[in-house]
Write a structure and sequence with these properties.
The chain has three helices and 15 strands. With 280 residues, the chain is mainly beta. This is Hydroxylase/desaturase CTB9.
Length: 280
């Protein structure tokens, strides 16, 4: 078991957001070469390396965090779908079981999956799969979360859905083998100051989204679950329409280089699905 020799905590370097000078709105433009189809990005912000960040290992204390308390929640639930090689099969098999799992874990009455991402770290190679994200971030701003409801739900349903509580929750899990290489770190929402958060526009040819950049704060409390297996997963809250201080609204997160990773550990492979979660 990964937990038998797990350290209590590890110390590493994280990459934080630094806003553009002069108060300019932060943005990232997704560009596509019209000839080659190659995707590139143009941005007006930077990142900074912050060393000596302590990340607490919650092995044996998984229940000390929850979606409403810290913004993320671990679970054990072996998936029925295990190949994760074909998008159509993922949508046909993994989506339905994930919807039922999220309903069970949250008490939600309606869950809509709007996309998924497979991540595989392949050093030195161009991969058709995305590499782990090595920057502290939040996937959706409040404005973008509301826009997602309009974009993915029938127009006739939207007004009623927006009257009640809704969330955006990512379901993340390793695939194939334990994620000892480049695991996922999550930041306790209660340690995040509103001043740490900066909206970042995502500009596409046909639309605009918005994520949240996260500036460094020495008060941030980072956690992870070392050596998560494919039978384990974590729910990551990216947005909650309840914003009165009674619950966590989001949790910053990032992939990171774990100094306790055993030599020869297989490179990280994972899947995350992104969902709109509604309650009656």
């Amino acid at each position: 078991m990964p937990g038998l020799t797990s350290p209590v905590s590890v110390t590493t370097t994280l990459h934080y957001f630094t806003p553009p000078a002069g108060g300019e709105r932060a943005y990232q433009k997704a560009l596509v070469d019209p000839v080659t189809g190659e995707r590139t990005a143009e941005k007006n912000f930077d990142t900074e390396e912050r060393p000596n960040i302590v990340i607490e290992n919650l092995r044996g204390r998984e229940d000390s965090v929850s979606l409403d308390k810290t913004g993320f929640q671990y679970f054990i639930h072996p998936p029925k779908h295990t190949s994760f090689t074909n998008d159509d099969e993922i949508k046909a098999e993994y989506y339905p079981e994930s919807i039922e799992l999220i309903k069970k874990l949250t008490g939600a009455t309606r869950v809509v999956i709007f996309d998924h991402t497979l991540r595989r770290r392949i050093p030195g190679q161009k991969s058709p799969f995305n590499a782990p994200v090595a920057q502290v971030h939040v996937d959706q701003s409040s404005k973008a979360s509301i826009a997602r409801v309009h974009r993915h739900l029938p127009p006739s349903d939207v007004p009623q859905l927006l009257e009640k509580r809704f969330q955006i929750i990512n379901l993340w899990r390793p695939i194939k083998h334990a994620a000892l290489d480049w695991p996922l770190a999550l930041c306790d929402h209660t340690s995040v100051d509103p001043a740490d958060i900066v909206p970042v526009a995502l500009i596409y040819p046909d639309r605009e989204g918005e994520t949240l950049g996260v500036k460094y704060n020495p008060n941030h409390k980072w956690k992870y679950l070392r050596g998560m297996t494919p039978e384990e997963g974590v729910l990551i809250k990216c947005f909650d329409s309840i914003q009165d201080g009674s619950v966590a609204v989001f949790t910053p997160h990032t992939g990171f280089e774990d100094p306790s990773t055993p030599e020869g550990a297989p490179f990280r492979e994972s899947i995350e699905i992104r969902t709109l979660v509604f309650y009656d």
